[in-house]
Structure formats: structure tokens, C-alpha cells
């Protein structure tokens, strides 16, 4: 029985991989989505451009080079948390979630599909950010170790944030309410050391920042792209690589435990009548 159950879950996971690929292609055909993928990298590149000539306090290291890796980490967390939250409410309203519930192990496939889709679209944004960013932020370390560590951070960052984003999105009654999560995510950037060394913040804010993935993904990206001496401006004057993988691993476990439970409960409430009512409401608003 256990073997059969595991086989069924693997089948669902493989179906999720295909689903994620198809959703990615569909997203790339949407002008609004494509504009969003390009817009944020362009804005960040402009921010880095204005930082040219500025240095990290107490050093001669370029501030733009310090900030670029942090933005890479932030982009992973931002794409993994806020992206799924917006789509989960939409999928509930158009019946997608109800169909996933009716399929054996459908929630597993649904979750895997979201990880694949937002992994691909987030990767596009990161590539579009790094290419111009490197040209305006010097002093970066870009060797084989950098790329291996960035790949690990990217993968772990997605699997640790997408399930949490799905779970949070399921708490909203409509897609329009997910803007609250966007505001909350932007607020979390303040204590996460994204645009300024976290050690310059009050101690209690440093502890707040270390609870969430934003700080750890930014720290991991900095450890991959910055020279070793820049660890001096971090907490404990260390990149704390093991702690980074440990915290993100804990978020991954929590997310994959909580998300399927929350999705099943939400889908249980999403009856056919409720889906029809939501569809009629959306159509009325559009009219």
C-alpha cells in the first residue's frame, strides 16, 4: 500500500512538472506578465546606476556591488511569496483548485506546478537583473563557486517560499486582496539588510529580519557574489552559510507540510456553486 501511494505521488509530481511548464509558457504570452518581468529588473538597474560612486560606510567597496546580490536574493523571495499568492485566489475563483482537489494527489501536482512556474519566471527576472546590474556594479566575484552557490540558493529559495506563498494566498477571499501580502513583503525588506547592512539596524530589528527568508536569501547571494572581506559588515562577521541553509530548509519543511493542508481545506469550501458565484461576480465587475 505504501509503495502504491508513493508511486501515485510521484505520478502527481511529474504531472505537476508538466503543468508548471505549460503555465509558464502561457504566462510568457501575457503582455502584462512579460512587462512585469522586465519592469522590476529595469527599476533595480536604475537604482544601482544612481548608487555609482557611493561606497559601503567604512570601506572603499562600491555600494551598488553590495546591493546587487541582496536584490537577487530579494527577487527570489519576492517571486516565491507574492506570485503564488495572487494566482491561488484566481485559481479558486475559476475552478482550477476544485479540479485539482478532484484528482488523486492533485494538490501535490498543483503545488509542484506552482514551484516550476514561479521558478521559471523568477529566473527570467533574475537574469534580466544580473546582466545590466553587473555592468553598473563592479567589484563582484563571479567565479565557478559563485554560480554553483547561486543555483543552490535559487532552488532552495523557491522551494522554501512558493509553498508559503500558496498557503498565505489561500487565506484571501479574492485575488484583489493579495495586495496586502505585497505590502507586507515590502515592509519585510526594511529589516532584511537588502539595501543597507543589517548590522546598522537596531538589534530587535535584526532579530525580526532573521526570522524570514528575505534576509537569508540576500545573505546567501552576498556570500556567493562578494569577496570574503565583505563578511565583516554582516552579523558575526560571517556569511553563516550553514545557518542560511538550515533556516531555509526549515521554511521548506514547514511550507510543504502546511500548504497541502490549507489547499485541501480551501478547496473543500470551493464548491461548484461558489465557483459559479465568483465567476459571475468577476464578470459583473468587468462589465
TrEMBL record:
Localization terms from the record: Membrane
What is a single Pfam family found in this protein's UniProt entry?
ABC2_membrane_3
Q: InterPro entries this protein is in?
A: ABC2_TM, ABC2_TM_bact-type, ABC_2_transport, Nod_factor_ABC_transporter
Record's protein name: ABC-2 type transport system permease protein
Residue ranges crossing the lipid bilayer per the database entry: 34-51, 71-90, 111-135, 147-168, 180-198, 244-263
Q: Where is the ABC transmembrane type-2 domain?
A: 32-266
Any one Gene Ontology molecular-function term assigned to this protein's record = ABC-type transporter activity
